[in-house]
Amino acid sequence: MRLARIDRPIGIWLLMLPCWWGVALATPSFPDLGMLALFALGALVMRGAGCTINDIVDRDFDRRVARTQDRPIPSGQVSARQAVIFALFLSLIGFIILIQFNLFTIFVGISSLLLVFIYPFAKRYTYWPQAVLGLTFNWGVLVGWSAVHADLALPPLVLYGAAILWTIAYDTIYAHQDKDDDLSIGVKSTALLFGSATRWWLLFFFAGTLVLVALSGWSIGLAWPFYAVLAVTAAHFAWQMRSLDLDNPRNCLRVFRSNRYAGLLIFAGIVLGQLAVS
Question: According to the model, what pLDDT value does residue 63 have?
Fold first, then answer.
């Protein structure tokens, strides 16, 4: 359970919510509860698989970072071979969930695998691993839309762009926890790239998120409750900016985790905007 980060469910929320956004954006009524449940279960197992793959790749780095040295693989509680078997098992469950959807959605879901395997290596070669995470973690927007319509269109692509900017913002906050260790071992991140200018970058990414979410909703004609809830989301982002202490790891973690509420607000806004139209 620790290897799959079940004890830290925020990652499950952040993987699941973009899927729910895509389903809600595609559904001109209340989203199908069975479909939402499948995406929740899929997020649970695929986040676990992703964390396991990441820990296998990063096991040497994790031994040298205070926050991660007690994880199951670097601490020796689980061998790399056992972790590979576990990741394959979780991936099999994820595939069984995926094939409950239409054929187009199956192909869309499978096409994300390249990003899943690229991400753990990104921090070695680029200061933008948060962007690679954004591309990977939010693929569910496209899968969620296609699960309803069996196609892709401009609205979910715009929403996918919004989710990528959101992820860069919240994961930059998260990365500030490890910036000293990352610097010493040669791992790259946007936290190190942005440095003292981080707040300005966060402002840009949060603002871009709101603009693109608004555009995606406008493109399918969502009603006024969508924009009202989006204004509350903007206030939440402002709270994050005001509360954030980039030199306090505990504060960074608390603010990072609060993005669960931002994601739920966006989901609620899309659903209410759809219901007000119908």
Answer: 77
Tokens of 51: 């964390």
With contact defined as beta carbons under 8 Å apart, do 39 and 16 qualify? yes
What range defines the domain where residue 210 resides?
10-277
State how far the Cα of 63 lies from the Cα of 85, in Å rounded to an integer: 21
Q: Which residues contact 76 (CB under 8 A, 6 or more apart)?
A: none
Per the document, the length of the chain is: 278
Q: Do 116 and 50 touch, CB atoms closer than 8 A?
A: yes
* 1 in a structural domain: no
Is the per-residue pLDDT at 62 higher than 80?
no
Q: Does 247 fall in a domain? A: yes
Within 13 A of 196's CA, how many CA atoms are on the CB side? 0
At residue 67, does pLDDT exceed 80? no
Q: How many domains does the chain have?
A: 1
- Give the separation between CA 148 and CA 178, rounded to whole angstroms: 40
Give the dihedral sign, CA 218/157/122/18.
positive
The whole-angstrom separation of Cα 272 and Cα 228 is: 10
Residue 210 lies in a domain: yes
Q: Is residue 121 a part of any domain in this protein?
A: yes
